[in-house]
TrEMBL record:
This is Lipopolysaccharide export system permease protein LptF. Signal peptide: none annotated. It is a multi-pass membrane protein. Its main location: membrane. It is found in: Cell inner membrane. It comes from the Bacteria. Component of the lipopolysaccharide transport and assembly complex. The LptBFG transporter is composed of two ATP-binding proteins (LptB) and two transmembrane proteins (LptF and LptG). Belongs to the LptF/LptG family. Pfam families: LptF_LptG (PF03739). The gene is lptF. The chain crosses the membrane at residues 12-32, 59-77, 98-120, 271-290, 297-314, 326-349. It comes from Celerinatantimonas yamalensis.
Length: 370
């Protein structure tokens, strides 16, 4: 029991450290992307932290299996490099018991991965969809910042020199509108002041006072110049942004029994990630076996390449299901079967029976040489 707790603690501690490092890397990359969208005016700055937080469960889908894989690889590599495993085996502690301890850690990772992939991530994605829909609906109000050109939803660009403290009163407003062909002529509106208003039906309008509107195309000489005391520009209709629930935010229970290939692929993907943890247990134990002279990181590169191949094959199978190129009943399961076969071969090559037969063959060759 003492050895079990020691190995269990070493594996868990290393996995947690790897998970924190990977989480920091993935969060940093995601933060840069979100910050870039905020800088371009697509996302208000006040929503950056919220959107980043809502993306954490989605990132954890990939981080949990790979952190377990690399964590066990590092932990076992250190134990072999320091000859601790050799001492355990010499004292009668079999490799199967090491596999059992690794499976216990994998069981915890499996439960976390399944709960995150099947339940938490779809729920958080639905919240993110609502937040993004509100941002799109409110983009006319929240994305306008003083001193910057901002793209609006109706193929218009706005520029406001100053916004007062209440956040809705604008000063020196410029709006350029370039509608699609046969849906109006390009126009430019300049006003000394304006206000942002929410209407009762949910639409949002830019109300301008004391300005001029220029309408016409550069290809024609037919221009109109209108001076106005009050002018309204519709920014967005909130009802146009009530998006349907996307597949990735659908509850897992609603994906069962569907004939839609995209939903089938999404369901198999959610199930595939927890299943991959089971197969990774069988892969990482033989991969973690090293010669102390090789160093603890001797098999890190081939192990990482094997995991990347596993992940990319699952991703390719998912895309093939969505495109109809791969039958759904074969789906991602064929990738699991392939990796299970590879893991079984690795385990067999590390088994006592194979090593005994190998030693006997070497002994027979030495005898024959004499």
């Amino acid at each position: 029991m003492l050895i079990f707790r020691y190995l269990f603690k070493q594996t868990i501690k290393t996995q947690f450290a790897v998970m924190m490092v990977l989480m920091l890397i993935f969060i940093s990359q995601k933060f840069v992307r979100i910050l870039s969208d905020a800088a371009d005016g697509h996302i208000p700055g006040a929503f950056v932290a919220k959107i980043l937080t809502l993306n954490l469960p989605d990132l954890a889908i990939l981080i949990l299996p790979i952190s377990f894989f690399i964590g066990v690889l590092f932990a076992h590599g250190r134990l072999y490099a320091d000859s601790e495993m050799s001492v355990l085996f010499a004292c009668g502690y079999s490799p199967n018991k090491v596999l059992g301890i690794t499976a216990a850690v994998g069981g915890i990772t499996l439960l976390l991965s399944a709960g995150n992939s099947l339940f938490l991530t779809p729920y958080v994605n639905s919240i993110e969809q609502q937040v993004m829909a509100n941002i799109k609906a409110d983009s006319g109000l929240s994305s306008i910042t003083p001193g910057r050109f901002v793209e609006l939803s109706n193929q218009a660009v706005a520029f406001v020199e100053n916004i007062t403290q209440d956040g809705k009163h604008l000063e020196k407003v410029f709006v350029a509108h370039n509608p699609p062909p046969n849906k109006g002529r390009p126009s430019v509106v300049m006003a000394t002041q304006g206000n942002l208003e929410d209407k009762a039906n949910g639409s949002q309008w830019l109300e301008l006072d004391k300005g001029t509107r220029y309408e016409g195309s550069l290809n024609n000489l037919d221009f109109r110049v209108m001076r106005f005391g009050h002018y309204n520009v519709q920014l967005k209709d909130r009802n146009d942004y009530q998006e349907r629930e996307k597949i990735r935010s659908m509850p897992t229970a609603k994906l069962f029994g569907s004939d839609n290939l995209a939903k089938i692929a999404e369901l198999q993907w959610r199930i595939a990630m927890p299943i991959s943890v089971i197969i990774l247990v069988l892969l990482v134990v033989p991969l973690g076996t090293i010669n102390p002279r090789q160093g603890r990181y001797a098999k890190l590169f081939p192990a990482i390449m094997l995991y990347l191949g596993y992940y990319l094959l699952m991703s390719a199978a998912r895309s093939s299901i969505e495109d109809g190129h791969l039958p759904w009943y074969i789906g991602i399961w064929v990738v699991h079967i392939l990796m299970l076969v590879i893991a079984s071969i690795f385990l067999f090559l590390q088994s006592e029976k194979f090593l005994t037969v190998k030693a006997r063959l070497k002994g027979d060759r030495r005898v024959s040489d004499y």
